[in-house]
Amino acid sequence: MSGFSADWLALREPYDLRARNPAVLDAVTASFKTRPFVHVVDLACGTGSTLRALSPRLPARQNWKLIDNDLDLLAIATAMPLASDISAKAIPLDLNRDLDAALDGTVDLVATSALLDLVSDRWLERLAAAVAARSIPLYAALSYDGRTAFTPSDPLDAAITAAVNVHQRTDKGFGPALGPAAAGVAIARFEALGYSVVHGFSDWTMGPDDRDMQAEILEGWASAAHDTAALSPADCTAWLARRRDAIAAGRSSLKVGHVDFFATPSATR
Ligand SMILES: C[S@@+](CC[C@H](N)C(=O)[O-])C[C@H]1O[C@@H](n2cnc3c(N)ncnc32)[C@H](O)[C@@H]1O
Questions:
Q1: 243: enclosing H helix or E strand
Q2: How does pLDDT run across 169-185, given as a tens digit for each residue?
Q3: Rounded Cα distance, 13 and 53, in Å
Q4: DSSP per-residue string spanning 69-123
Q5: Which residue owns the Cα nearest ligand 1 atom 13?
Q6: Against a cut of 0.90, is the pTM above it?
Q7: Which strand (E) or helix (H) includes residue 217?
């Protein structure tokens, strides 16, 4: 168990799919369009959201290595039906410990989503160095970037967001997490390694009908803010109650900032 439940990943997947930046996806597609076969490694695949989002945009013949340290999520990822020319294999690994093993063998593309904001600067440096040493492109989607927008506004929104962004930087198993800084740091790192990077926003947008998703996010944020002790427990509870009232009244909208990028080495193998 990783703490990322299959239910949460299922709830967020449609929002992720809608949010994925189309220009970044187009760049991935264009980069592989003349290839007869693509070998993809999906780092921290969860239940396979990236495979479902990306495989229709790649050449028909694909081989995926699905890496995660959560066996339950991997079991779901490999149970899904695939097109006949696509094969996928689950590889249980702790990416903090076994990054090199994850990149073993033939790899044409490293893909990941909703991972980089969990990792430390040090781990990101290892990833970038390992990927660049192999001259592999990297598609990294849905890194939270710290931006939020709430409707209706509440006097505590800014304080809650600030506390959430502090909480995002705590250790998630890879050392102190980059949190909202992750995409910016990663893009700069790949550019410094001579990669070209296409990037863009991939924000979650939720309207009044997106009650379950908003409720889940806001509950998590109230809990994270509480853990930081930046606000009093009473303030966290009252903020969540007001936001829940707005959801129940059909008046709540929420935007959560993310960034996608596709980094390609100057001469792709
Ligand atoms: C936010 S979820 C994203 C899952 C999937 N990529 C998606 O977009 O739905 C983060 C994933 O990272 C995995 N993870 C966290 N720490 C890990 C580690 N040390 N090694 C391998 N996977 C890890 C979790 O099990 C989880 O599946």
A1: helix 233-248
A2: 999 999 999 999 999 99
A3: 9
A4: S-HHHHHHHHHS---TTEEEEEEE--TTT-HHHHT-S--SEEEEES-GGGSBHHH
A5: 44
A6: yes
A7: helix 211-228
